Amino acid sequence: MKIGLYFGTYNPIHVGHLIIANHMAEFADLDQIWMVVTPHNPLKKKATLLDDHQRLEMVYLATEDYPKINPSDIEFKLPQPNYTVNTLVHLHEKYPTHDFSLIMGEDNLKTLHKWKNYEVLLEHYDIYVYPRISEGEENIELKSHPKVHIIDAPIVEISSTFIRNSIKEGKNIQPLLPPKVWDYIDHNNFYKK
């Protein structure tokens, strides 16, 4: 089975994440998409994150109507901070018959050379890249690598940061969130302070 791993802090998960995950499930040669909730991205400040299990719950709520998209808490059990290469080693041990690939935005591809053991990732894993409007130098060498697959997915410019800030300001951003996620956030008064 070909599994696309879509890593994120999902703080919160929004319709943009679902559009990309569903597009990969339907239009790339992947059987399932696992939305891997990252406890702590080494490049992000931990103070802005909701509790790991609250973010996982939001991913469950958002994906329960999508049979090809599954939430994953695999990184919750691994040493912090999480590095993708370590997670993949763990997944191979746990699921030896699965074929894992990475899903990332074009912005992440531009900085892939800064990732821990990125050469190992490129050597052993397919990387499915969706378009993003982003700053920075395009890495032509990486973009044309045989393991890198550029997918013609919709460009979705919604950010979790924008959503958190908007909720804090009392704005109605309901259309940007799956309805059950909006209800969960609203019920728990998340991001209001």
Q: What's the number of helices?
A: 8
What kind of sheet is the major sheet?
Answer: 6 strands, parallel
Instruction: Write the CATH homologous superfamily.
Output: HUPs
Helix content: 25-40%
By CATH, the topology is Rossmann fold
Structural write-up:
The longest helix is centred in the N-terminal third of the chain and has 13 residues, at 15-27. The chain has a six-stranded parallel β-sheet with strand order 3-2-1-4-5-6, with helices on both faces. Helix 1 (15-27) links the parallel strand 1 (2-8) and strand 2. It has 193 residues and is α/β, with parallel strands linked by helices. It has eight helices and six strands; from the N terminus they run E-H-E-H-E-H-E-H-H-E-H-E-H-H. The chain has a single domain, classed as HUPs (Rossmann fold). The protein has helices at 15-27, 52-63, 84-94, 106-110, 118-124, 140-143, 160-168, 179-187; strands at residues 2-8, 32-37, 69-72, 99-105, 127-130, 148-150. It is globular. Helix 2 runs antiparallel to helix 8 (179-187).
Provide a concise account of the structure shown.
The chain has helices at 15-27, 52-63, 84-94, 106-110, 118-124, 140-143, 160-168, 179-187; strands at residues 2-8, 32-37, 69-72, 99-105, 127-130, 148-150. It has 193 residues and is an alpha/beta fold.
